[in-house]
Amino acid sequence: MKRKSYFLLTKEVNDEVKLLLQAVIASLIMFFTAHALAFKLHWPSRYTHHTFRMVLAVAAAISIILILDATFRWSRENGKQIFILGTIIIFGAGLVLYPSSFSLKVFPKTLYVEGKAPTLYNFLQKQPQNRLEQNTQL
After folding, report:
1. Which residue, among 91, 101, 105, has the nearest Cα to 60 in the 3D structure?
2. Each residue of 14-34: pLDDT tens digit?
3. CB distance 74 to 83 below 8 Å
């Protein structure tokens, strides 16, 4: 006996999803290349940090949509409309309460570091814009 699949929306996920895997592979290659060059290229984490955040967000969105669609299909076909309402309430509460459950100082976590060199900042602010340069030689 063949079971009926409620994940019909997976047919709409095409081969362009491979782009997520390619982005992760490319960032990992750059990460290990930066390690091989012993930090002369750039800090290695810059190649994976943002890529992983973006790829995980897109993959999570695709997964949530597939699960919601399957839940709604199952509920409609089995006459259990209360599951649709319950799912909408749970996801709505999650969207509203999740960001507000953190204090504004920690969400979103950006890892910014506030510098403490006011004399340097004053000096740089007084420089003409065309003279600001960065020396990257080690």
Report:
1. 91
2. 888 899 999 999 999 988 888
3. yes
